[in-house]
């Protein structure tokens, strides 16, 4: 393909405040329809908004974590449009002066190199209610209406689908780390729009872009981008022009459909919200929020690599969620061997079990300290490394401790030298002919004798001790 | 009819009961027959009056408004009491909550006689822009009571309320008060909570009392300047308590006060108005005030500025009236939600409201916003600066309220621009967020009242009221 792909993402994140942006209604996805509403969020005449201070804190923390400059004097605006789930007839947002501007995050590009993706702005706004369309009727639920949102507008620095989902994942992980958003895409906590255009390689001017809306998973972001690249490239290849459009993506068919074109685009008639004062944020307030930021994924990756001597890949996987990172640190701390071993076990064995059972790390049936115990049992030769996987499965299935599982399974390793020596002598007596042939120079029979010994110990013999004793008895 | 302060004294001295007072108001309402009310709450008022009377009987009045009959412009939200904004679009709207104003007067023990008429959403100067019918001037029924708070002014003038709360976005209390020969006072923007006041132009809207005397303004204002956390534009200042100052006020307070006279203001008025304004100025001089010439060079742009900003804000404020969530809906509208919006709004809003929504929508449109809305905001700042400069050389500013006094009914039909010009003298005060008070003074050629306006410094409401009271008590 002779085109360069230019992608910019707009991500909407619901803030995890207890109450709504402009009123004190509780935010709840479980409440009965239209029970978490008041004169303000149902837009009764005469009602006025009051800004939720917690939402401001969350927005500032997010902007700081995304390396943005915090605007000491930002303000709110009205974005006018009619829709039944927007009862005011306008959305309160931030247009010319958002709370944060000019940030970036780091991702790995397709070649595994570190890449900075710029963030143009972080703005505060509000969610709408929810429409449910049925045959012959549309139902409105205003429980969600007025939930505080931040919109994170990324710069057009992304070049392919993989980078886009890397970026989206990183943003999700940062917001969840901060505790400012639940980050659940199924619940609609995070939503993403993709802006995409193509230009001939070497061109400096951007091509006409389209906006794809309604992407509620990493996979749909990737799929939509791949589809849109193909579609635009085909148009350009055949000498046609890309039209500036807003598109809706359908994950089932993998295609897009036109929602609106530029010629009938809405004029939102932004103007300053007269009911809310400008938002003034002091240096001291910014400093305090900055100091209270938790350790973010990038910093954690660096620390994990140094502190635990694990490679980047491991650190990246282990920091993909706060809970997983916490799990690793607990396990690695209690494990007496090298942290890399704990990392392997978590990434390979534990995550496999968790994924298979559809659970999540926070609810793991094998707690971090028990995983450490299991690995310590391997380290001190209580069990063999081979049997440990079965023990883990038992621990996971029955939610029992490592000690209990080993006891139940009867797999404790035999490391008693005299007991092993007895068993080996018995093996050698049983296979006197092979011993004879070995001693005459048929050294490859050694393996056979180890195997038979193991069999006699029911697999529980300590392999290293068996080796030592067998050698001594045969060669000594 | 007596003023609030006198009624309060009589209630305290048990010369009259709250029930007698409200019965008297109701009978005056019937006799006057000026269409001042949209909803009369006769039964409720009698019950409330009895409750207040029982409390007064026991412990005496708890404040100046306890047991006092009053009315609210129908732009103020009253829980469980129909609130129409003077418009068909809300003809059936029963609010599920109480606004600040309603709450404050309930707390004070005032007796709500009813909800009074107004131009739809406060848009108009004559009270003719409403399906509930024009409010007649109680002094001569061939004339309008003025607008948009015409019902408020008429109810106080006819004696059916001791006071009424109107709204003032561009002069909507000062003008009708002036037309009806009583006092209309617009507090500084931000001094009184707007929570529960149906919005027109949010950055200009201010709830504003109408009463018989300046002293009564003191009685009212302490009850409505308590900080309300639900309106973030409501300033955190202590409430204004000045009744004692006003009771003891002497005309000599005016000695040495500097009163600004803006160049060119008076000359543009009708001859009879001008004559009375000059006579009032003479009186101020005689009482020892010093008249100072000031200039408000950008005031001439105020009408355009106002009609761009107010209508722009209105175009968004009125978007919530969509026929879906509450209010009037065309139940026969077919072809989806779009048609329901269009038909409900077309039927629900009056002509003047539609005109202002269209004007405001245009002023904010992409490609036009810079030359209209954004420019108006800049001129607004210049007008504010003009006042700040003028106030360096004076304590208050003296100004006409309107170039004429009350108009005949139907006189201003079909010429919106001419009608907008009536707001020339009241609008600058809203644009600059200042306090202003309209006082009655003299009679015009049509034998109806005339008057003048005093404009105070930002948040110097108490000083403005004191100066106005000093003039009121002159011999």
Secondary structure class of chain B reads alpha/beta
Number of strands of chain A: 16
Helix/strand order of chain B, N-terminal first: HHEHEHEEEHEHEEHHEHEHHHHEHHEEH
Radius of gyration of chain B: 21 Å
Q: Structural class of the secondary structure composition of chain A?
A: alpha+beta
SS elements, strand count of chain B: 13
3D structure, described in words:
- The complex is a heterodimer of chains A (476) and B (475).
- Chain A has helices at residues 53-65, 161-178, 218-237, 283-291, 297-308, 312-318, 322-334, 339-357, 368-379, 385-398, 402-409, 417-430, 432-439, 445-456, 463-475, and strands at 3-14, 69-70, 73-74, 77-80, 90-93, 100-108, 114-126, 130-134, 137-141, 148-154, 190-200, 210-215, 245-250, 255-261, 271-272, 279-280.
- By secondary structure, chain A is of the alpha+beta class.
- Chain A has 3 domains: 3-289, no CATH class; 295-409, no CATH class; 417-475, Orthogonal Bundle (Arc Repressor Mutant, subunit A), CATH 1.10.10.
- In chain A, the strands form 4 sheets. Chain A has a 9-stranded mixed sheet. Chain A has a 3-stranded antiparallel sheet with strand order 5-4-15, with no helix packed on it. In chain A, strands 3-16 form a two-stranded antiparallel ribbon.
- In chain A, helix 12 crosses helix 15 (463-475).
- By secondary structure, chain B is an alpha/beta fold.
- Chain B has a domain at 4-247: Amidase signature (AS) enzymes.
- In chain B, the strands form 2 sheets. Chain B has an 11-stranded mixed sheet with strand order 1-3-2-6-8-7-12-13-11-9-10, with helices on both faces.
- Chain B is globular, with a radius of gyration of 21 Å.
């Amino acid at each position: 393909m002779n085109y360069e792909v230019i992608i910019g993402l707009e991500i909407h994140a619901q803030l995890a405040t207890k109450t709504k942006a402009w009123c004190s209604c509780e935010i709840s996805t479980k409440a009965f329809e239209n029970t978490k509403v008041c004169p303000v969020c149902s837009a009764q005449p005469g009602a006025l908004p009051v800004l939720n201070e917690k939402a401001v804190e969350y927005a500032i923390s997010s902007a700081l974590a995304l390396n943005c400059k915090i605007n000491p004097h930002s303000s709110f605006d009205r974005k006018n449009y009619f829709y039944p789930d927007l009862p005011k007839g306008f959305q309160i947002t931030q247009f010319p002066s958002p709370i944060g501007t000019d940030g970036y995050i780091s991702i790995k590009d397709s070649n595994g190199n570190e890449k900075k993706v710029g963030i143009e702005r972080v703005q505060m706004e509000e969610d709408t209610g929810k429409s449910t369309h049925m045959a012959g009727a549309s139902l409105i639920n205003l429980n969600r209406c007025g939930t505080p949102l931040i919109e994170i507008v990324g710069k057009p620095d992304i070049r392919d689908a993989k980078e886009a989902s890397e970026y989206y994942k990183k943003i999700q992980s940062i917001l969840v780390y901060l505790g400012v958003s639940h980050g659940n895409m199924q619940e609609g906590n995070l939503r993403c729009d993709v802006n995409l255009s193509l230009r001939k390689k070497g061109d400096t001017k951007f091509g006409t872009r389209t906006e794809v809306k309604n992407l509620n998973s990493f996979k749909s972001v990737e799929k939509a981008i791949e589809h849109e690249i193909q579609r635009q490239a085909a148009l350009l290849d055949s000498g046609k022009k890309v039209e500036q459009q807003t598109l809706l993506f359908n994950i089932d068919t993998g295609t897009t459909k036109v929602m609106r074109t530029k010629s009938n685009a809405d004029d939102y008639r932004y103007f300053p919200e007269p009911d809310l004062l400008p938002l003034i944020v002091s240096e001291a307030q910014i400093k305090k929020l900055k100091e209270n930021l938790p350790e973010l994924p990038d910093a954690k990756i660096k620390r994990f690599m140094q502190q635990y001597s694990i490679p980047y890949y491991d650190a990246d996987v282990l920091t993909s969620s706060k809970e997983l990172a916490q799990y690793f640190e607990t396990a690695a701390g209690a494990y007496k061997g090298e942290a890399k071993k704990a990392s392997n076990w978590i990434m390979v064995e534990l995550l496999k079990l968790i994924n298979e059972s559809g659970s999540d790390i926070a609810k793991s049936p094998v707690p971090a300290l028990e995983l450490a115990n299991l690995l310590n049992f391997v380290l001190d030769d209580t069990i063999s490394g081979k049997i440990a996987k079965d023990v883990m499965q038992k621990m996971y299935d029955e939610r029992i401790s490592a000690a209990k599982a080993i006891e139940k399974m009867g797999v404790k390793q035999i490391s008693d030298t005299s007991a092993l020596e007895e068993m080996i002598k018995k093996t050698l007596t049983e296979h006197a002919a092979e011993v004879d042939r070995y001693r005459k120079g048929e050294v490859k029979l050694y393996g056979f004798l180890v195997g038979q010994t193991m069999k006699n110990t029911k697999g529980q013999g300590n392999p290293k001790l068996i080796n030592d004793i067998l050698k001594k008895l045969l060669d000594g | 009819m007596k003023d609030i302060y006198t009624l309060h004294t009589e209630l305290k001295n048990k010369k009259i009961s709250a029930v007698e007072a409200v019965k008297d108001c109701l009978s005056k309402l019937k006799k006057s027959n000026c269409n001042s009310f949209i909803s009369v709450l006769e039964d409720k008022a009698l019950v409330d009056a009895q409750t207040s009377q029982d409390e007064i009987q026991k412990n005496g009045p708890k404040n100046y408004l306890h047991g006092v009959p009053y009315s609210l412009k129908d732009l103020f939200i009253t829980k469980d009491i129909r609130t129409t904004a003077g418009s068909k679009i809300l003809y059936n709207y029963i609010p599920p909550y109480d606004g600040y104003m309603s709450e404050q007067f309930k707390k004070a023990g005032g007796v709500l006689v009813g909800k009074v008429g107004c131009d739809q959403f406060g848009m108009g100067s004559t009270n003719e822009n409403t399906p509930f019918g024009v409010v007649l001037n109680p002094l001569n029924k061939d004339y309008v009571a003025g607008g948009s708070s015409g019902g408020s002014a008429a109810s106080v003038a006819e004696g059916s309320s001791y006071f009424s709360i109107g709204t003032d976005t561009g002069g909507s209390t000062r003008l009708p008060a002036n037309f009806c020969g009583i006092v209309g006072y617009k507090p500084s923007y931000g001094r009184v909570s707007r929570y529960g006041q149906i919005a027109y132009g949010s950055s200009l809207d201010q709830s504003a009392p109408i009463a018989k005397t300046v002293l009564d303004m003191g009685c009212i204002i302490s009850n409505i300047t308590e900080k309300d956390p639900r309106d973030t534009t409501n300033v955190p200042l202590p409430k204004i308590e000045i009744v004692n100052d006003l009771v003891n006020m002497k005309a000599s307070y005016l000695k040495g006060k500097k009163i600004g006279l803006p160049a060119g203001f008076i000359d543009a008025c009708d001859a009879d108005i001008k004559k009375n304004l000059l006579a009032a100025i003479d009186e101020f001089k005689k009482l020892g005030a010093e008249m100072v010439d000031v200039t408000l060079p950008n005031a001439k742009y105020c009408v355009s500025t106002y009609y761009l900003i107010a209508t722009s804000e209105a175009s968004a404020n009125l978007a919530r009236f969509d026929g879906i969530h509450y209010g009037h809906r065309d139940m026969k509208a077919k072809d989806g939600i779009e048609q329901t919006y269009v038909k409900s709004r077309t039927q629900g809003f009056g002509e003047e409201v539609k005109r202002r929504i269209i004007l405001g929508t245009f002023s904010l449109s992409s490609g036009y916003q810079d030359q209209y809305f954004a420019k108006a905001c800049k001129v607004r700042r210049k007008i504010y600066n003009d006042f700040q400069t003028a106030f360096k050389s004076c304590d208050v500013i003296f100004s006409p309220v309107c170039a004429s006094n009350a108009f005949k009914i139907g006189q201003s039909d079909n010429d919106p621009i001419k009608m907008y010009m009536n707001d020339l003298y009241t609008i600058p005060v809203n644009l600059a967020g200042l306090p202003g008070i309209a006082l009655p003074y003299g009679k015009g050629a049509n034998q109806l009242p005339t008057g003048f306006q005093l404009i105070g410094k930002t948040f110097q409401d108490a000083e403005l009221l004191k100066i106005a009271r000093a003039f009121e008590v002159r011999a």
